[in-house]
Design a protein that fits this description.
The structure holds 2 protein chains of 2 kinds. Chain A is an all-alpha fold. Helix content of chain A is 72%, strand content 1%. Chain A starts with a helix and ends in a 7-residue tail after the last helix. Chain B is mostly helical. Chain B has 6 helices and 4 strands. Classes of the chains: A mainly alpha, B mainly alpha.
Chain lengths: 503, 158
């Protein structure tokens, strides 16, 4: 079947009333959590992971994907209006977006953020459609050694890009792998680290771990600091950018889309670094760099395009290799696994309806987001007035329900509380949770690939460096691990270090 | 509150020490599970080597804490509302215990009241409807719409 037929098949799936409804719920919740600081796509996706069980795999995954790219749209609203990024991806939008709002240009800033997001989001879906099938064919050539090395590279990139000490990030990633190994061994089916608890035979659940580390820990931290928000009374009028705004934004949107898309594909990269990179690029090539930070529309258009394009690009490694490049995609992998579906090179052959249905739903989702984010902007602004002392008990209530509904097991509630406390304490000591979660998801797969590669090669460890793809991945990972040892490069790392997936 | 050199109350040092203990545990579990051979790795192969890597990293963290600056344990909580955090943690642990004993509704409503009133008090006129309304609505959606059974507890309410 050619590409056009596949796309038509995908639209037939995505346009069914039930999938349209799930897509709408996804992008609506995505925008909602994007707007609200303190709760992000990770918490929302963890909460709704159990809900995916109640429908078909297509519906559930369409909704989860919608939450992710929807949150990219919503995050810019708070950045522009109240100078608080709704998401880590919208930190850069604060710089010029809020300045524009202060100058009475909140409307064009919000409008441009929505249009840039729409254009980039749609373009990245086209890129995903074109590249994914080719990469899937190429990915079949990936053996256990290549897969293992690629996962090592992904983990190293995440630890490299995480804020703070790399030693600490590596420790968290190692702990994540160990946690991922709990349960029945994938080769011998013998229990490991279960301590006689039957609940642990299937391993620790992803939902309670993520809910604890991100949802509960976030609430505990916020309570301790006593979050107080003041909402700007900025008047919003005329959301449509002028022709001059469009002229200035055309280039940044184009460059931001391309940059974001490719940074999104790289394991460990993602929307946050894409937004930062786009802002840096635009400032560097601008004829008027002094205007950046003082309300330059290029500083809104470029990063907003980049973070949305990256959200689309991030689907490529998951759908074609079965490897989640970031924590959000790890949760999406969880949604696939819940339905006994293994994403990877064979997905588009075995489940073309699901593969193309999810991709084409993103076109529809992007259109829905444009409608949600322009005419309904007033409603989102009202939501910003919801005080945190009302919001946090609701968040905690939803985490409890989410965890219990996912397994119907009280044990998971204890797991969530334990990880909530662990997450709170590790944050205090400057340990980021993102590497742990990604490693937790990859842990069992990594171990299986390592052992399989060693069995196939009859114990020849050089198999990891004699295969070109594996050697390249390990080489890059080694360079990244050594970089912090060089003072100049360490400073550079600290500049680009990000707190990916925290919000 | 930061100072360099060896200090017993250095939070980073304690962090490194805890991680070191965890890594020894992982290493020992790996050894017990069986390392196997390189051409037929056992169940504990990866865990054992991860334990060694973690031990090295935790020693690195501890060494870094002695060499460079690190906050004291007290400084981590100085000027924060840690009592409020503690209240939420204790309430949550008690809630998990009460969840099966008392059932979803009888345990969740008091939890909501505690969270709404004990941290940053919400006015009763808002707190009461929210504490009763939200759990009831969720109970209705889960039990009646999604057919997900929630614990009813010894009183079989819900």
């Amino acid at each position: 079947m050619d590409l056009a037929a596949q796309v038509a098949n995908g639209f037939a799936v995505a346009l069914t009333p039930i999938n349209l409804l799930y897509c709408f719920i996804g992008v609506f919740i995505g925008t909602l959590v994007g707007v609200l600081p303190g709760i992000g796509p990770i918490s929302a996706m963890s909460l709704l992971l159990p809900v995916t069980l109640s429908g078909t795999p297509e519906s559930g995954i369409i909704m989860m994907a919608g939450i992710y790219y929807g949150s990219m749209y919503g995050g810019s609203t708070t950045s522009i209006l109240v100078n608080i990024p709704g998401e880590a991806t919208s930190v850069v939008t604060c710089l010029d977006g809020h300045q524009m709002a202060k100058q009475g240009r909140a409307g064009p800033a919000l409008g441009m953020a929505a249009f840039a997001s729409f254009i980039a989001g749609t373009a990245s879906v086209v890129g995903l459609m074109v590249i994914a099938p080719y990469l899937a064919r190429f990915a079949v050539a990936f053996g256990p050694a290549e897969m293992f090395s690629l996962m090592i590279l992904g983990l190293v990139i995440v630890t490299f890009l995480t804020q703070g000490s790399m030693l600490k990030s590596l420790l968290m990633a190692s702990a994540g792998v160990v946690l991922g190994l709990i349960g029945l061994d994938s080769i011998t089916a013998q229990p490991r680290l279960t301590f006689g608890r039957i609940e642990l035979y299937d391993g620790i659940g992803l939902v309670p771990v993520v809910m604890g580390l991100f949802g509960v820990a976030e609430v505990l931290t916020n309570i301790e600091q006593g979050i107080k928000r003041t909402v700007s009374t900025t008047k919003i009028s005329n959301l449509l950018p002028s022709s001059e705004d469009w002229q200035r934004s055309r280039g940044p949107i184009r460059r931001g889309t391309a940059l974001g898309f490719f940074l999104g594909i790289i394991p460990g990269g993602g929307a946050v670094i894409a937004a930062f990179a786009s802002y840096a690029l635009e400032k560097r090539i601008s004829k008027t760099p002094e205007q950046f930070g003082k309300g330059a529309i290029e500083g809104v258009a470029g990063p907003e395009a980049a973070n949305n394009a990256a959200a689309g690009g991030a689907f490529i490694p998951l759908l074609t290799l079965g490897i989640p490049p970031n924590v959000v995609m790890a949760l999406l992998l969880g949604a696939f696994v819940i339905h006994n579906i293994q994403p990877g090179p064979l997905l588009m052959v075995q489940r073309p309806d699901l593969f193309w249905g999810v991709i084409t739903s993103m076109y529809i989702g992007n259109v829905m987001l444009l409608v949600l984010n322009l005419p309904l902007i007033g409603m989102w602004v009202q939501l910003l007035r919801l005080p945190y002392n009302i919001l946090f008990p609701m968040i905690l209530l939803f985490t409890v329900i989410g965890v219990f509904a996912s397994s119907n097991n009280i044990f998971d509630l204890y797991v969530m509380i334990a990880f909530g406390i662990i997450g709170y304490l590790t944050r205090k000591l400057g340990y980021e949770a993102a590497p742990l979660v990604l490693a937790f998801v990859l842990g069992a797969i990594m171990e299986n690939k390592l052992r399989t590669a060693l069995i196939i090669s009859a114990g020849d460890l050089t198999t990891f460096v004699t295969k070109p793809i594996s050697a390249i991945c390990l080489g890059i990972a080694a360079i990244m691990l050594l970089m912090p040892l060089i003072p100049f490069l360490r400073r550079k790392r600290e500049q680009v270090a990000i707190e990916d997936g925290q919000n | 509150m930061k100072s360099s050199g060896f200090r017993v109350n250095n939070a980073e040092l304690w962090g490194g020490a805890i991680w070191f203990a965890v890594s020894l545990f992982v290493l020992e579990q790996g050894r017990r599970l069986g390392l196997g051979t390189v051409n037929a790795p056992g169940m504990g192969f990866m865990m054992f080597w991860l334990g060694i890597v973690m031990a090295g990293l935790s020693l690195g963290v501890a060494a870094q804490s002695i060499r460079s600056e690190g906050p004291s344990i007290r400084a981590l909580w100085a000027g924060t509302r840690w009592v409020k955090t503690l209240i939420v943690i204790v309430a949550f642990v008690l809630y998990a215990y009460a969840f099966t004993q008392l059932g979803f509704l009888l345990s969740t409503i008091p939890l909501m009241l505690v969270l709404l009133r004990a941290i940053d008090p919400v006015r009763w006129v808002i707190a009461l409807p929210l504490a009763f309304g939200a759990p009831l609505l969720i109970w209705w959606v889960l039990e009646r719409v999604l057919q997900i059974q929630l614990p009813t507890g010894v009183f079989e309410i819900g």
